[in-house]
Every structure is written in C-alpha cells, then in structure tokens.
Amino acid sequence: MSAHQKVLRVRYTKIELIRLKRRLVVARKIHRILRERLTILISELYSMLKEAIECRRRIHELLIEVYSSLIKSYGHLSESELSMLTEGIPPYIKLYIATKNVMGVITPMLEVRRGKEKATYTLSETCIPLQDVIKRMDKLIEDIVTLAELEKSIQLLSYEVIRTKRRVNALEHILIPRIENTIRFLTMMFEEREREEKARLKHVKTVLTKRRSGE
Amino acid sequence: MEKELEELLKAELLRYANKHIPYARKTLKELLSEDFPHIICRDGSRHYFHRKELEYLASLLPREAWQLIRLPILIVLSPELGEGAAVINGNLECYIVCKILGLKYEGQSRMIIYRPQIAELRRKLRTATQYALSLKSLLEKSEELEARF
Questions:
Q1: Mean pLDDT over each residue of chain B, to the nearest integer
Q2: What is the C-alpha to C-alpha distance for residues A34 and A169, in angstroms, rounded to an integer?
Q3: According to a count of CB atoms within 10 Å of the terminal CB, is the N or C end of chain B lower?
Q4: Residues of chain B with C-beta less than 8 angstroms from the C-beta of A109
Q5: In the prediction, which pLDDT does A183 show?
Q6: What is the predicted ipTM?
Q7: Does position A100 have pLDDT exceeding 80, yes or no?
Q8: 3-state DSSP call for residue A165?
Q9: CA B18 – CA B12 distance, rounded (Å)
Q10: Which of B25, B31, B43, B47 to mutate to test binding with chain A, by most A CBs within 10 Å of its CB?
Q11: At residue A215, does pLDDT exceed 60?
Q12: What percentage of chain B reaches a pLDDT higher than 70?
C-alpha cells in the first residue's frame, strides 16, 4: 500500500466522518494559499537571479576598466605618490544595513549613502587615468553592495522556496489523499452498514409474515 | 463550537498568508522626512525603503501628491483573475504604475497587471511595492466545496 493509499486511524463514527470532511476543506484551503505563496516566491527568486547575473557582469566589466586605468596611472605616478593620495581620502561613503520583507522572508537591505565630505583632487595632483579610476570606483562600490544584497536575498528566498515546496507536496501527496481515502472508506462502510440493515429488516419482515400466515 | 473554530481558522489563514503586509502605510512625504524610512509589518518585522526608490517616486509625482500616496504600493494577487494576474488599487498608485510600465493612464482607480509587468515593477520598486494575497476567492471556493459534501 503506497503512502497516499493509506487511510487515517480514526474511529468509525459519523461524527468522525463530519470532522474529516471539515479537515479536508481546511487542508485544501491551506494548500491553495501555500501554492500561491510558492508561485510568488519563485517568480521573485527568478527576477532576483536575473538581476544578480546582470549585476555580476557589470562588476566584471567595471573591474577590467578600473584595473586597466589603475595600471595606466602607475605610468604617471609613483607608488608612494599614489599611496599618499589614497591615504588622504576621507571616509565619505557610509553603508547602511537594514531589512526588507519579501512575502514574509526577511532579507537584507543594503544602502550606500555619501557623506558631505568628498574626495577631491585636482588634475595637477593626479592624472587622467586616476581620475577615471576614482569615477568608476564609486559606481563599482554601489554595484558590489547591490550584488551582496541580491545574493543574500536569493539564498534566503531559496530556503523559503524549499520549505514551502515541502509543505505543498506533503499536503498534495500525503495529507489530502489520505483524508480523501479515509472519507471514501468511511462512506463506503456506512453505506454497507445501511444495506445490511435494510436486508436484515427485510428478512425480519418475511419471517414475521410467515409466522402470521402460519397462525 | 466547530463553526466558531472554523471561522477562527479562516482568520488565521488570512493572517498567515499576509503576515508581511504593514500595519499602517506611510505617505511618501512622511517617508522622505525620515532618516531611515521604514514601516512595521504585521509579523513585527521592519521593512525599510531604499531612499533612491523614494526619490524616484517623488520625481514621478507632483509635490502635492506626496502626502496622498501611501507606501508600499500593494500588488494584490487575485486567483479569480487567473494565475499571475494582479490588481493595483488607487488613483495615484495606478498613475505611478502606468508611468513606470509605459502605459497610458486614463484616470482609472483599479488596474490589472500581469506577470512580466509585475516583474518589471518589482525590479524598479523592490522595497516600495509589496505583494498581498486576495484570499476572498480562495475562501469562497472552499465554501462551495464544503457545500458539496
């Protein structure tokens, strides 16, 4: 007997049958809601995946550009000059970490905010490739933060998808079929009892008629 | 007693399915004035908004409308419309959605959008929109089913 063909262990009473029918209705409602939730979670997961792939591609492109510009800037400035310039950068970028709620899944929300202080250099202090590096680095940091947010969200959403899928499957393939089987079994049993009762009554009636005719 | 329990369970189902919905939505003006714009969800968690999204919304709307629009915009998924269809309620909400999706706004206060449009909307307003499940039809369907027995 496979799992879904099994019947639940219940008392063979009509009250139990009524209870089972109510349980079936509730189980179906929960199943529908969970299925709907699963659909949303999966669509959200796919859209985040697409965005993460796009973001990663953008980061790779930016890194190639940044590194090539940085190498070019070594041609104009010495290493000590470059380190002196970088040491003077004030911490003008702040990272805020908060949470956002996606269909009941709490995912991180990262945000880059720029302070009033800004790293400013004149062209005489630096060179064109280094200015290019500085410009692209701002975009790069934002993209890296976005990617981090997306990847953690994807991870958390996938766990939730697995959990919800397991619940949906348990309801769909185990609980609901078992309740249905039990209802069918109990209904058949009560019908059989009714038929037996009818047959017995008929038999009693014939016996009584025979007795009366004999008198 | 059984009937009361059933009613309680229904309420519980509604609560569970929409536990991520905020207790009270805030206006765009309120959110813009906050340092860390956020709302409290029904499950007690905090949902923060990306400032960029709020600024983007502010750029789409005239200044007078900032105190009229309440965020997050709810994308109500209604199974009676078919799988993947959702409803947006409210004049300003519809106006914003039309602007973002490049649709023509005709003064409607309720509009239906479909899966690719939902994905586009969510991509642009990830924290300023939230899903909500319309369970009315689900519960009605179950009542029909119950009546069959």
A1: 82
A2: 10
A3: N
A4: 48, 50, 127
A5: 92
A6: 0.79
A7: yes
A8: helix
A9: 10
A10: B47
A11: yes
A12: 79
Note the pLDDT of residue B149: 47
DSSP characters for A105-123? EEEEEEEEEE-S------T
* Closest-CA residue of chain B to A98: B48
| This prediction's pTM | 0.80
Residue A214 is assigned to a structural domain of this protein: no
Rounded Cα distance between B18 and B5, Å, is: 20
For residue B140, what are its two tokens?
Answer: 């009605």
User: For residue B63, what are the CA distances in angstroms to A194, B32, B96, B98, B139?
Assistant: 75, 12, 14, 18, 41
Scanning every residue of chain A, which has its alpha carbon at the shortest distance from the alpha carbon of B129? Answer: A102
Task: Judge contact between B99 and B60, C-beta under 8 A.
Answer: yes
Contact A3, A174 (CB under 8 A): yes
- Indicate the pLDDT class of residue B54, thresholds 50, 70 and 90: very high
What is the number of domains present in chain A?
1
C-alpha span between A192 and A47 (Å, rounded): 55
C-alpha separations of A75 from A80, A128, A134 in Å: 13, 11, 16
Phi-psi region of B120 (alpha: psi -120 to 50; beta: other; left: phi over 0): alpha
Pairing mode of beta strands B73-77, B129-133: parallel
Percent helix, strand, coil in chain A, to 5, is 75, 10, 15
Q: Which residues span the domain enclosing A26? A: 11-208
Q: Which two tokens stand for residue B96?
A: 């914003």
CA-based nearest residue to B69, from B48, B88, B50, B45: B88
Are the CB atoms for B122 and A48 separated by under 8 Å? no
Under a CB-based contact definition with an 8 Å cutoff, are residues A54 and B34 in contact?
no
